[in-house]
Amino acid sequence: MSKPIDRRKIVAGLAAGAAGAAAFPAPAISQGRIEWRMVTAWPKNLPGLGTGAERLAQRITKMSDGKLAVKVFAAGELVPGLQTFDAVQNGTAEMGHDTPGFHLGKNRAFGYFFTVPFGMAYVEHVAWLYHGGGQQLWDELSAQYGLKSFAIGNIDTPPFGWFKKPITSVADLKGLKMRMPGLGAEMIRRVGMVPTILAPGDIFAALQSGALDATDFTGPANDMALGFQQVCKYYYWPGVQKPGAIQQVIISKAKYDALSPTLQEVVTVACQAGHQDMLAEYNWINAQALKALTEKHGVEARKLPDEVLVALGTAAGEVLKEERGKLDPLGQKIWDAYFSARRTMINLSDYSDRALGNARGLGFPYV
Per-residue pLDDT for 85 more than 70? Predict the structure, then answer.
């Protein structure tokens, strides 16, 4: 299993804030070599997200034979973790590595390229992006902000979240302050919770101080690295708030368009490889981390009560129907395309992944 990260070192690394920007000069272009800065929303070396950003930068640099070199800046080294979008827009960096779920304040339609409560799973979401027209819609939306967006990773379906107290009914959720980004925030608000969004490096302190009663994040490996098990002992599944959550790279569209066709293809293929690579890493490290959490740290991994799941599903349906009316014409086009793809993909899942999962639940006789 990957060596756990010292949470204190992670959080301490965030303290530099935006002040670090002055220490890093603008990128150079010399003898055909282009240097780009990638700012991220993640603590340095955070498994999956942080390491995925580093591998993506290395992959682009190597695949381009050094013609496009990418340098990574963790959250706080160049800009704070939740300011990647603005940093790319204003030219502080050429690339940003985060999640579309952080940017619903810019345009709520970004949520459909992140994840949707009770929405498409990883394999379904990627099928829509790559072959069902989803990427073209994402390009159209991102271009309005001078950006080009790529999916560069997936955390698959995470837990619902960490709680300090057990959840036995919908009544237990009332008034609980929970960190949750994306459209899931509106879902939990509808069942009486109080959602907020925090950068990853700020979550532990908020749980410890009582500013938060609960949190979601990405899954066992990252959650354990950030120390949530030290404050919360109840870990609830399934993560209906964000199945198959997409992580993204946002790139200055002007900078991307100025690349040669060959370098544009390098970036595109590197992002596709990074997407699959991150998912594989998460599946591997999460399986080991969950075992450690439950066997060594006394964490109780529990399924949400059916009553709670029904309430969350009802709330999600209400929220998502109302969301369409809040969107502009392009957003409504994206909404329609997403849910059309969801209906199509569910039909296949009934005969493939879900069918296999149900069959494996019956037992495996020789292991």
Answer: yes
